[in-house]
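hey so i finally got around to running both of the ones u sent me last week. sorry it took forever, my laptop kept dying halfway thru and i had to restart like 3 times lol. anyway pasting them below in the order u listed, first the sequence line then the structure token line for each. didnt double check formatting much so if smth looks off just lmk and ill redo it

first one:
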Amino acid sequence: MFEKEMDNIHDGHRARLRTRVEKYGLQSLEDHEKLEYLLFAFVPRRDTNPIAHELLKTFGSFRRVCDADPAQLISVKGMTENAALFLHSLPDVVSAYLLSEKEPKLDGPIACAEYIIASIGWENEEHLIVLYLNDGCRVVKKEEFTSGKNRSVTIDRDKIVAGAVKSGAKYVVLGHNHPNGAIEPSAADVDATNRIVQALGVVNVSLGDHIIVSGGEYYSMKVHGDIVDPVDLSGSVYQFAEKLVRRENDLNRLRLLKK
């Protein structure tokens, strides 16, 4: 009799949460309620509220719960294997959803940032994504590199230029994430980016932007004036030298600003 009454209480609570989600969406719930709601299908006929609270207590935030390995999630009392696998797969589900349509037109910083956030914005290690675009600003090739055991990912200028030539790209867009939450570029980021700008210019390819992301936030180096136009290779050697000096002066000013 007592167990039946408890079942009725849990069923009533679940029904109230479902009603809130139907009326106001998942974002209307607190983090523990979101977890509680998501666990309904995988932890049947049991109060998922204490499980949700224990998950947040163990891992610290909703995001860290979803980033945890299934083995870590299963160690929390009340969790099932299916529930752990489901929560762990949520970031991949979101990325697949955002990238499921036809390759979008990346013709501005917002479109580029949305694409890069969906691809690497939530990663725990530093990733670099290189997007090769045609003259219609559609992705024709994508490369992704990770930092692995290193603290930061290496930007290989020669590999990027070779990728642009092989793919017949008109534009290249770079993106990398900062797992620590900061989105402003370092002086090294700006310097490496502008060296790539000049190298791409030699093969008549433009760097559209370099976007830094962390979670759902982004920083466009193009918008913030961190990217210097490549030196025009036409004209005499003397004119080229003058242009090179002017560009190097511009880069030095940027380096001072980033210190």
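and the second one:
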Amino acid sequence: MIAVLAAGVDEVLDVATQCASDDDRVAASERRTEELRRRTLAGRAALRLVAAWGRGVPLERASELEISRRCPDCTRAHGQPRSADLALSSSTSAGRVLVAIADPADAIGVDIETVPGQLWPGFDSYTLHPDEALGMPAGSASDGIAARIGTWTAKEAALKVSGRGLRTDPSSLRVDEHPDPEHDGWHRVHGAPLPRSAGSAGSGGSTPLPVSVRMLAVRGSARAAIAANRPQDVRLWTMPELLTELGCLPDTGYDEGELSHLT
């Protein structure tokens, strides 16, 4: 099973800042703007919060979990999160955070994007496969923008599965329009690089399964996706649900009604 937390930056910083490590705080402090500093700290704290749940570690020890972010290109600590005990992925956009954990034999990727009022010039040629472009609504319409951001989100998540990210041209990928009939809600992503892990093999033999992606229902004007080397069950948490599961919601003074700002 993949466990996913979708939360707001403010709510993570309100109740889970203590989960961040010293390295996380340093990384956040080096970002250029206050918004980016807050997003970085929230994303890292949220990932440790879910990882602590997955490992059965007390929250007061979440900051001690070994999570590496070493970039394979420059060795700086800004790459994909990695752990020996869990598969990890994280994403932030505007005031939102999306993080996920899974079995260490799996490879996963998440992405969340706020739907903008307009797209940048050249979006379609950079993002869409020719087959995808044919079926898209007009790019200037609100539903056309939302559909394109949904496709972009699915591809970003899929490209994180291999760890290559946007080193691969997004327009070379094609997301199946219809779900896989054998895996409800999951769409195959053709052309996505496969992870090197043994977990990418099919259950019936050694033939690797294609990367698959599943869109997630999140509140507000955002699109979110989880991708994996094999379709599986997904548990999508909100912050109050996860805190309740951890048995710490009553101590936070947190009111679920306060989530109304996530629009």
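quick thing i noticed on the 2nd:
The chain has two domains: 1-103+232-253, 107-231.
anyway thats it, ttyl
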